[in-house]
Design a protein that fits this description.
YdhR; alpha+beta; about 100 residues; Monooxygenase; about 35% helix; single chain; four-stranded antiparallel sheet; monooxygenase; Alpha-Beta Plaits; oxidoreductase
Amino acid sequence: MAYILQMDFKLDGPFGDEMAEAFSDLAKSINEEEGFIWKIWTENREAKEAGGIYMFDSKESAEKYQTKHTERLKGFGINSVNGKIFEVNDQLTQINNGPID
């Protein structure tokens, strides 16, 4: 069963191309996390928020990464991090062409 981790937090920037350049190494390192399948990076320049939607192959992997990333963000001075973990309903997600593989 797949699990989604949704995380968001306040961020003054960078956004867009600058974010892509600044966080490229972090993005590559996420690929090495245990149980990681994919991530969609999210940003809202106007609201000064960023985050991501992650898919992991187990709840344990999602929880482990949530803890690790929350601590990493605190190290960057970001103390208010929202995170939630959800089970993926494969049948309904397939109807809507969701990337569950």
